[in-house]
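Dear Dr. L.,

I hope this message finds you well. Following up on our conversation about the binding site, I have prepared a predicted three-dimensional model of the protein together with magnesium ion. For your records, I am including the exact sequence and ligand specification that went into the calculation, followed by the structure tokens. Please feel free to forward this to your student if that is useful.
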Amino acid sequence: MNQQGPDALLKSMDRMIAEANTRMQAGKVLDASRSYKKAAQFAEQVVEMVDDDGERRTLTIKANEFRLRAKSLETTGRVDGARIKPSDMPLDEVAYSDEDSDLQEQQILLLIDDTPRTIEWDSIGGLRDLKEELKFHYGLAMAKIPEGMDVEGWRNIMFYGPPGTGKTLMACAIANKLNATFFNVKSSQIVSKWVGDSGKLISTLYRVARKFTNDGRPSIIFIDEFDALCKSRGAEGQLHHQQMLAAILSEIDGFAQKGRRNLVMTIGATNRPWDLDAAVLSRFERRTLISLPDEAARAEIFRIHLEAKGLPVDHRSLSYDKLATQSERLTGREVARLCKEVTARMLAEMNPDIPALVDEGLKSIQAYEIQTRPLKHSDFAPSLDNLVADTTVEDVHHYADWGTQIKDSAD
Ligand SMILES: Nc1ncnc2c1ncn2[C@@H]1O[C@H](COP(=O)(O)OP(=O)(O)OP(=O)(O)O)[C@@H](O)[C@H]1O
Ligand SMILES: [Mg+2]
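The resulting structure of the complex is given below.
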């Protein structure tokens, strides 16, 4: 085992690249390929040692590039960046030039999202049982298992339910707690942007996610709007979606290796679970309904979006429980929006001079400190009076019925 520190390893990596160049010039293609492989190994070792995400990303790209060069040298005898035609290669070995592959990895690295770091379990109101369940099963997937035993926690889970109920928040909180690298994939975006080699891009996504697990930190691939992958828009679109979906499913399957700690986890989310077919659903060990918050949960969500954000509250007049009874069927997102509205009105009332100060110029506005006052129950009246919840009773039943149906069909 190599005991060198990162600096020494980077030097060794540079030495291998120089060696590869010399060997190339001497026409020793296979030797050069071996040097590139070693350079990749050094880069990968450093990835395991550094904490800085940017540095890890750069090194991961480098390691990948060296491996591609090595492969390209082995198969074609050159690394000249020209696209290697699929017809020159066995079908399952369709290769890409370094340039293409870099571009693909760059696209994937753009999906890494640091938002989860700011999301704690306490930033999510309600959903108490689900939080415990998630902690238990993801904990099980990460913990050491006794020799010879076959215990598996969850790797893949699908959240479904009405918009704005905390599905994304839950995925973020797990990622935060597990210190995971979070790949935030919005299906509708990748469907429209990743035209062409979408299946290949999905494999790149999972490969990069696996690379990021080198230091023992898990990767979470969060696929939002999962239904967008299962719908077809015209024959061409359909093929494109199917390729992606097939690639995702085979990646998910590919990781069902027994006895191995499951470091790459997929979390799907959808508002339209009925658009997912049985083959897709069966890949997810758990389908979990995240429905509207109940009264107690709404009270917590009000508190999170007011007090926990540092806004002053007059507790003699304002009761979270009362707000909760007056906001039936609101989602977490609607409660958050309502709190923003009320806060904005209070701020406008307390700071009427702001527009004039802006007219005076930057210095004046920068010298001004925002005034606030504690929020009272009556501040909420204008918003509560005009309340129309986004989610209907029928919607709520639709999700619950679908859940019962798939449970029945699985039994
Ligand atoms: N349980 C909750 N506790 C606190 N805030 C919440 C909760 N649910 C939703 N919110 C608020 O609503 C916003 C949206 O929540 P989130 O993104 O998790 O919804 P979602 O279920 O993923 O919705 P969509 O299906 O539209 O993607 C959050 O950023 C937060 O401000
Ligand atoms: Mg979401």
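In brief: Residues 53-76 form the longest helix (24 residues).

With kind regards,
A. P.
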